[in-house]
Every structure is written in structure tokens, then in C-alpha cells.
């Protein structure tokens, strides 16, 4: 099988049906639109064909992937690097140092992945030479349009004189492809209607008076217990308000919205992924496209603005044949008419406070740029920190920092043990990540 070794590095033995069809259809001289649910493997749908199109002897940027969020840019970049193709890749996005990006472009990568705002900036400043850029991917293109990037996307595409092929993806049916995309009538792979297996979701209605809504959320989170849960709100101001209330109630949690600094966003996602927090309060930014784990429950603390948002939020649970529960926290007003599900009322009850998570996240002030690997960190913590392999959980190595999940009862002793030690002949700062 083509790409067998590369896929094995991702722990994948076989492509799914969607990925097989995308690989067969693109590149084939025609543009391609892929419609499929969140979590169906769209990233490999375009990365694998891209590898076929890249030429090792060709200088400059050859392909561009536009995405709606910086997290998605980093996620796709990590997947591409894991494939170990030999091609250079770079991610450009708001909140990232411009000087770092311009330095990278002095020896241009074959593949650039980024958000429309930052990529448009580089084109305006003539940092990117598009003469050899032949392939464009608009991943979750409807989400980028929804976030207000229409002008930036149009300007970028107008700056690509030698574009030969386009690959568009979306998790939503019925989204109009803007004329500026230049999408020629080509292949359309629609796996939305055929996402054959309907998710096994249970819907529960939590009623509360407006002044009692926060307490109702607290009781609900205690009821959900140790299950990972996403608490969705509509605006970052409400995310902050809910987070502050949970802090006062001593409930460990993370927060995620578009105005957080990049390091804080990465930290909160890492803590949720590794189990250091089991609750993530978030806007719809986490409803699609992000690499976050399967969650047992979704809580709509505020009702979403439309059916599409409702579907995407709920899609974060009951994936891959699992089951999940969706909770609707309602203050007495009728549910929007497009929420046409049978939600069983949930009786509120007072339960013991949530126990602390088993894991704590330790921050390390070094990452890929320092040639640091997961293996280095495991060996260091075992030899210098006195840990066993079972004391170490999920490890995420970023460009300039790393996050390591450590058993909570081992963290204090670990930090004391490694405080004056060097790793790979470099002094690295270790501390609890909050």
C-alpha cells in the first residue's frame, strides 16, 4: 500500500473509505470538494495527495493550506511532520512571531499552512513568492468565511497566478463556494448524508431560574463526574464569566476562546487532552476541526445560534461508535424550534464536590527547536526525577515548549529533583502549568 510506512508512524494501518476515494480523485486534473463530518479524517484526504504533487527538485512554496484557526494550522503541521516526507513545512498564524515566519521564508518550505489573516499579511508584504505555488487547500472553508476572512481569502487567491488545483473541505452541507475560490466543476465527495451511523446520543434537559443557572451547572458537572466534558457558550465574555465562577467554586477546568494568547490556548487544550482538567469551557471555536479527545458529555450552557452549530457541538461526543450525552441548560424559555430532539428532564440533586483529576501538567521551557523529544523527557524524568513509566502520561512537544502529564501525587517531588538538572546539556525550567 502506498504511504504504508508514513501511515504506520501515525498508528494507521489502513485508510478509511473517504480517504481512499479522495486519494483516487485528487490529483486528477480537477478540483475536489470533500464534505464529511468532523473527526472523519479529512486531514489525510488532502495531505496524502499533496505529497504526490510536491516535487523535491522544485524550489519555493508549492502548496498552501488555509485554515480557520491557529490550532488547526498547528495540528495539520504536526500530522505532516509525522509523515516524515522530507519536505519542509511551516505554520503561520496570528499570535506567532512575524520575524520567525519571515526568517523561515528566506528558505521557503514546500508547504505553508496558515490562517487567512496572517497569510494575507505575508502576501501584502511580498514575503511569499507564489510563482511555483500550484495547489491550494481551503480546509473548513465555510468556517473561515463565517469568521470574516472573506476579503483575506479573496486577496490570497488573487495572488496565485499559477494555481492548478484546489481542494476544499467542509463539515457542513449547503455552504456556497465563493466565486473568488475559482472552483471548477470537479469531483464532489459527499460523506455527510452517508455518515451512515447516527451518533448514539441521549439528550437531557436541565431547567433552572436565570439567577440559579451557575449553580445548576455546578450540580450538573458533579453529576457527570469524571467524564471529560465540553461546556459550550456563545461568546468569550460568557466563557470568562463561567470560568471565574468555577474558579470561585474550586472546580478545576480549562477555558478556550479566540482572544486567549497562543501559549494559553495550547496549554488549556493540552491539559484537557491529558486529563489534568476534565472540563473545558469554550466557545464554538472547539466545536470542529480541533484535535481534542472523545468526550463523554456536551453541555450547552447557552443555546447555539443555529442548527449547524448545535450539530457541530454535539459531534464532539458519541464519535467512532461510542455513546454520549448532551445536556441542555435551559432557563425556562422555550428551546429554539430547530432543536427538535426529545430531551428527558433531569432532576437536580446535590452531590459531593468533584475529586481532583489524577494528572497534573508540568511545563518544560524547551521543545522541538531545542531538539527535545518525548523519549528525552521520559528518560530524564525516570533517571533524574525518580518516576516510573506509569507516572508519566500524555506528552506534547511544541516548537519552544513541552507539556507533560504527571501523576498528581508525584509532581512536588519531581520538581524538587529536577530543579538543578540539565537535559541535553541545557538548563530547562520545569513548573506546574496553570
TrEMBL record:
InterPro entries reported for this sequence: DbpA/CsdA_RNA-bd_dom, DEAD/DEAH_box_helicase_dom, DEAD/DEAH_RhlB, DEAD_box_RNA_helicase, Helicase_ATP-bd, Helicase_C-like, Nucleotide-bd_a/b_plait_sf, P-loop_NTPase
One term under GO cellular component: cytosol
Record flagged with keyword Signal: no
Occurrences of domain Helicase C-terminal (ranges): 216-362
Gene3D superfamilies linked: 3.30.70.330, P-loop containing nucleotide triphosphate hydrolases (3.40.50.300)
MF terms (GO), sorted A to Z: ATP binding; hydrolase activity; nucleic acid binding; RNA helicase activity
Helicase ATP-binding domain segment(s): 23-191
One Pfam family recorded for the sequence: DbpA
CDD domains membership: DEADc, RRM_DbpA, SF2_C_DEAD
Keywords, in A-Z order: ATP-binding, Helicase, Hydrolase, Nucleotide-binding
PROSITE patterns: HELICASE_ATP_BIND_1 (PS51192), HELICASE_CTER (PS51194)
Family: Belongs to the DEAD box helicase family.
This protein's name: Helicase
Gene source species: Pedobacter yulinensis
